[in-house]
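Open question from group meeting: does this chain pack into something compact, or does most of it stay loose? Before anyone orders reagents, we agreed to write out a predicted structure and look at it together. Recording both the input and the output here so the notebook holds the full record.
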Amino acid sequence: MSVIAIVDYGMGNRRSVEKALEHVGADVRLTGDHEQIRAADGVIVPGVGAFPEAMRRLRSSGLDELVRSRAQAGVPVLGICLGMQLLFESSAEHEGADGLGLLPGRVTALDPGSGKLPHIGWTEVELRRQSALTHGLGESAAFYHVHSFVCRPEDEADVVGVAEYGERFASIVERDNVSGAQFHPEKSSHAGLTLLRSFAQSCAVDSRALA
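Structure tokens returned:
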């Protein structure tokens, strides 16, 4: 069984992510403790709220550098909702802020067209390419989104899934061992649990490879 650390920096649906992972059989640590995160087979960065405040909290506890170091060591890292946005280089939200820089690209406001912001609700995600994260989901799946900003990956090859709300946007991204989901898998019923189970399984596989 893989041990997955959910980075607790005080923002995000941490408990609901924890329960969803337990449901799919993962051994979960909801923690801000560096040693526990360093010992985990996989790392999840959750998040709900504003990008600049999230980065301030991560930096103040040194968790930003720890997440970077775990990613650079080849440990699977998954960002959820705001957590996916934090994986990128910077965001234009509020006063703007630098991100973790694990994926090239920026975060800017979603253009909702005639819709309202935030974008809230179930939206179909078209899966553009194969990924261990989306194994078993077919060509598309509906996930529950809540957001006003979107990631603009520099490299289109990093985009696994796209959704549409006013404009088409990256909803799932992945580069090597770093991946992100703009939606809330813990609130996305069977499809969301399937994605979290796939992440947990990839953590177990990678931990054996790194052993």
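Observations to bring back to the group:
The first helix runs from residue 14 to 23.
Helices lie at 14-23, 34-39, 51-60, 63-72, 82-86, 189-210.
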